User: What shape does this take?
Amino acid sequence: MGMYHSTYFAYGVRIPDTDPEHIEETELGEGVGYLLAGDYDRDMTFLTTQCKEVDLGEFQHVTPQTADDEQRAAWDQALRTAAARLGVEPQSEPGWFVVPDLS
Assistant: This one.
C-alpha cells in the first residue's frame, strides 16, 4: 500500500462531512465543486469555486489577488447557495485556504 501526498490551494468553505454521492446528486450551481482532502482517513469536505492541486515536490504560482471584491462576492454567494442546496451550514467563512492531503 502506498501513500499519496498532495496539497490543494482553493477558494471555498468547509462544510460538515457529507456523503460524496449526495454532493454529486445535488445541483451545486455553476462554478461550484467540492473537495475531499485531509489527513489519511480524516478527510474534510469543502465546497470550492477555485482549486489548484500541488503535488509533493512541486510548486505552482497562484495569484489570489487577481480576484476583485465583486468576483469574491459572487463566489461567496454561489458557495452559500450550494451549501443551502445540500442542506448544510458552512463551518467557515468563504476564503482562500491550503489543505494538505494524505491518502
